[in-house]
Automatic annotation (TrEMBL):
Record-linked SUPFAM superfamilies: UDP-Glycosyltransferase/glycogen phosphorylase
Keyword Repressor attributed: no
InterPro entries in UniProt: Agluc_phsphrylas, Glyco_trans_35, Glycogen/Maltodextrin_Phosph, Glycogen_phosphorylase_DUF3417, Pyridoxal_P_attach_site
Source organism of this protein record: Streptomyces pimonensis
Cofactor: pyridoxal 5'-phosphate
Protein's name in the database: glycogen phosphorylase
Catalytic activity: [(1->4)-alpha-D-glucosyl](n) + phosphate = [(1->4)-alpha-D-glucosyl](n-1) + alpha-D-glucose 1-phosphate
One of the Pfam families matching this protein, by short name: Phosphorylase
Protein family (similarity comment): Belongs to the glycogen phosphorylase family.
Described purpose of this protein according to its UniProt entry: Phosphorylase is an important allosteric enzyme in carbohydrate metabolism. Enzymes from different sources differ in their regulatory mechanisms and in their natural substrates. However, all known phosphorylases share catalytic and structural properties.
Record keywords: Allosteric enzyme, Carbohydrate metabolism, Glycosyltransferase, Pyridoxal phosphate, Transferase
């Protein structure tokens, strides 16, 4: 029989056990070993059955067991210790509080998904896991972050396989009352809500759930509330589901509703108001519009409000391809804003212009969320050094006249939260070496020299650790594979072979991620005979564990999974290669430590960062990857192997795959398997162990989320906070007026004549030339502009590389025609072909970049010819 109503019945804990409730409601347990060990000891079997979720555990523990624990002195002492540790963690000073710079009072961090723990399934892949790790690292460092996202009633889908290997999706309903969440409430006990206006006099309401991620509050908006119509209730039904209008409403709720939720939370709790707003990808870009509307209501016009909002906004782009960006029909966006919908005080045309693709090749009828995000943020970044370069190329059209390297998009390479991803066995080895507290600090802060102690760990200890982790993975794989085959319809009698799947003494390769085509799940199948030989080699076999989800609407990705599954089903190789469905955080935490090699073979440069290999490296797993994302930046032969790429313009995709697959097989056959299996005098693979040691000791500190968040604080949050404080209403009005004046006058800004003190085509290194330039400023003043000499090596087409810029100074007064003369030195500091040019840029003390306005004046062709080119 089916129940007609459902309740969540929470246990009543005996008074001595009340701290267990606080420990369960703070998600720090998801990365704090001592807290997890405490909950495991409550009831080990129920802990495993509850998926290591304290809230579910406490909901199922018998009253008899609770009474027993309430009288257990040893348990209560441990409980007091763990609760005291949490209190000290929440209230004590940490890295952020020790900084001398005037840092932001608070930072609001917006993301469409957050991967905190498998017990709160609100993530689909790398973007969400990165956001979760960002919050955890901020908590460990004491950064006053407020996270903002949506609460999806179905989360992302659960994955299983049909008998023939086709991906099946399932959407279990999540009850917020059974999750580690609390409702944000008004003083009278009623739920706090935010409301958005929709066309047709409708409203979209959402309540605010609070997940406490260590010191960081995470606000999650939920539209499944009374008062909403069926369509509005379904806005937060599932992650990345629905059509364009559904996605638009999700992103309006995240951005606009998210700002309102932050205001409500700060008002109710006394938390400091954010000085900086960080938009993690374009999905939350509408937050800037809400903040403009707030300032508009306080008396600022749109342009001044835009400058004030930009000053305190950071935008992070995660996609290296235009197809990965959300774009909406302009008419759809226009319908949801204006007098009869949301933000009625803001002109719809001004909103639309923020998202317009107003550059060559852009589509004027589409509203681009990343373009809006860049226009609403004074500071922007990609997520690896290579991705920063790709992003500057991709968005260069927004800054016409500037070389891509001058486009104001920097990069902060992603990191991963080591306490979440490091296996307990690895942690214990570190604790044995330097102590638990020092190990914890080394993993969280990321700037400690304590990683050097890895050099002192005995070879035997490292090898035994790696084997034990591999053995744990083998057991995990067999259990998950058996469950998967039962879901596919197999009977117990058919599954005896699973007891022989994988071998704890065989080189183990891991590959797990989302399954878009560019990640090339099936590249390893390119030459099946060669792969089979690798798997079944009599002396140096390889075994492979694969996992991943295709988007529900991506049949191409599903076909790739089916192709891999069918190969792995072959009785000849199924003991050496497996596909595990339903990849998620719980599986990942077992998979990364147990693999010896982490494989990544995307089409370069389409992997923005790719952090799975970082998590593997923190457990002593070596990387085998195309030089893309973070691996392009930090690869060394001591950390693993680089797969050569065939990414020349003349190589067709099929031939490229063939070349790179062959290179992959060559590496496995000729370099990797010999390194793993060849033994020294002591019976150990000496070179392999040394690579593990150097991966841990040298690469480990680089890949930490603690390092990443410290970079965000120092390079982006602190400057944004200073800019925010400087942008008071008068300054915002002044800057907006200045920009309008400069834009209106810029057509009259010209470089009219350039001459140098040397006219020969050669000169000696170190020579200093005198530059004299006559310019027209079109009614602007010298304080409105910067006239620069730009010099450096030139290529065969006279393009300047590695440019050096030197400001020139005005001399005297303008001539009768209003033209100014600028002078300055030009140092010939490089040998070989060398060239220079002159340009004029807008200049103002409140600009974060000279390229900010996208305006530049350069010499005309006539002026170029008269100036000549030096040292060709």
């Amino acid at each position: 029989m089916k129940a007609i109503r459902r309740f969540t019945v929470r246990p009543v804990l005996p008074e001595p056990l009340r701290p267990l409730s606080d420990l369960a409601r703070n998600l720090r347990w998801s990365w704090h070993t001592g807290t997890r060990d405490l909950f495991r000891s409550v009831d080990p079997e129920r802990w495993a059955a509850a998926g290591c979720d304290p809230v579910r555990l406490l909901g199922g523990v018998t009253t008899e067991r609770l009474a027993e624990l309430a009288g257990d002195r040893d348990f209560l002492d441990r409980l007091d210790t763990v609760a005291g540790d949490l209190d000290a963690y929440m209230t004590g000073d940490r890295w952020y509080q020790a900084q001398t710079d005037r840092l932001p009072a608070a930072v609001a961090y917006f993301s469409p998904e957050f991967g905190i723990t498998a017990a709160l399934p609100q993530y689909s892949g790398g973007l969400g896991i990165l956001a979760g790790d960002h919050l955890k690292a901020a908590s460990d460092l004491g950064v006053p972050l407020i996270g903002v996202g949506l609460l999806y009633r179905h989360g992302y889908f659960r994955q299983s396989l049909s008998r023939d290997g086709w991906q099946q999706e399932h959407y279990p309903v999540l009850d917020p009352h059974e999750l580690p969440l609390d409702q944000l409430e008004q003083p009278d006990g009623t739920p706090a809500q935010v409301t958005l206006a929709l066309p047709g006099d409708r409203s979209l309401r959402a309540r605010i759930w609070l997940a406490q991620v260590g010191r960081v509050p995470l606000l999650l908006l939920d539209s499944d509330v009374e008062g909403n119509g069926p369509g509005e209730r379904g806005v937060t039904d599932r992650l990345y589901g629905g059509g364009s209008e559904h996605r638009l409403l999700q992103e309006m709720l995240l951005g606009i509703g998210g700002v309102r939720a932050v205001r409500a939370y700060c008002g109710l709790t006394g938390h400091a108001a954010p000085e900086v707003f960080h938009t993690n990808e374009g999905h939350a870009g509408f937050l800037g519009l809400e903040r403009i509307a707030e300032l508009h209501a306080e008396g600022l016009d749109f342009d001044a409000a835009l400058e004030a909002v930009r000053a305190g906004t950071v935008f992070t782009t995660h996609t290296p391809v235009p197809a990965g960006i959300d774009r909406f029909d302009r008419e759809l966006v226009a319908r949801h804003f204006g007098p009869h919908a949301e933000l009625p005080g803001v002109e719809v045309d001004r909103i639309l212009r923020l998202g317009t693709e107003s550059y060559p090749g852009g589509e004027p009828n589409l509203f681009n969320m990343a373009v809006m995000g860049l226009r609403l943020a004074q500071r922007a970044n990609g997520v690896s050094l290579l991705h920063g370069h790709v992003s500057r190329e991709m968005f260069a059209g927004l800054w016409p006249g500037f070389d891509p390297e001058e486009v104001p998009i920097t990069s902060v390479t992603n990191g991963v939260h080591a306490p979440t991803w490091v296996a307990p066995e690895v942690f214990r080895l570190g604790a044995r070496q330097i102590g638990a507290r020092r190990t914890e600090e080394a993993l969280s802060v990321g700037d400690s020299d304590r990683w050097d102690s890895v050099a002192d760990i005995a070879d035997q200890d490292i090898w035994e650790l790696r084997r034990s982790l591999r053995e744990l993975l083998v057991l995990e794989v067999r259990e998950r594979l058996r469950a998967s085959w039962r879901q596919r319809g197999a009977g117990t009698a058919e599954l005896g072979w699973i007891d022989g799947v994988l071998d704890p003494d065989v080189l183990t390769v891991g590959f797990a991620r989302r399954v878009p085509s560019y990640k090339r799940l099936t590249l390893m199948l390119r030459d099946r005979d060669r792969l089979t030989d690798l798997l079944l080699h009599p002396e140096r076999p390889v075994q492979i564990v694969v996992a991943g989800k295709a988007h529900p609407a991506d049949d191409g990705g599903k076909r790739l999974i089916q192709e891999l599954v069918r190969f792995a089903d072959d009785p000849r190789v199924r003991h050496r290669i497996v596909f595990l469905p339903d990849y998620g955080m719980a599986m990942a935490q077992k998979l990364y430590p147990g693999c010896d090699i982490w494989l990544n073979n995307p089409l370069r440069p389409l992997e923005a960062c790719g952090t799975s290999g970082m998590k593997a490296a923190l457990n002593g797993c070596l990387n085998l990857s195309v030089l893309d994302g973070w691996w392009d930046e930090w690869f060394q032969p001591d950390f693993g192997w680089a797969v050569p790429t065939a990414d020349g313009a003349g190589t067709d995709p099929d031939r490229r795959d063939a070349i790179e697959a062959a290179a992959l097989y060559d590496l496995l056959e000729q370099r990797i398997t010999p390194c793993f299996y060849d033994r020294g005098r002591d019976g150990l693979p000496d070179r392999w162990i040394e690579m593990v040691r150097r991966t841990l000791g040298l690469l480990g500190p680089k890949v930490l989320a603690g390092r990443m968040v410290r970079e965000y604080v120092e390079r982006l949050y602190a400057p944004a906070a200073h800019a925010h404080r400087a942008m008071d209403p008068d300054s915002a009005r002044s800057l907006a007026g200045w920009k309008a004046r400069v834009r209106a006058a810029w057509h009259g800004v010209t470089v009219d004549h350039v001459e140098t003190s040397v006219t020969e085509a050669t000169a000696e290194l170190g020579t200093t030339l005198g530059l004299r330039v006559r310019v027209g400023l079109g009614g602007l003043k010298p304080e409105d502009v910067e006239v620069q000499a730009v010099s450096g090596r030139v290529d065969g087409e006279d393009r300047i590389a590695d440019a050096t810029t030197v400001p020139l100074k005005p001399v005297g007064s303008p001539d009768p025609e209003g033209r100014w003369v600028y002078e300055g030195p030009l140092v010939l500091d490089r040998t070989g072909p060398f060239g220079y040019t002159v340009r004029i840029l807008p200049g103002h003390r409140l600009l974060a970049s000279r390229a900010e306005l996208g305006l530049v004046a350069v010499p005309s062709e006539d002026v170029v010819e008269s100036a000549g080119l030096l040292m060709r």
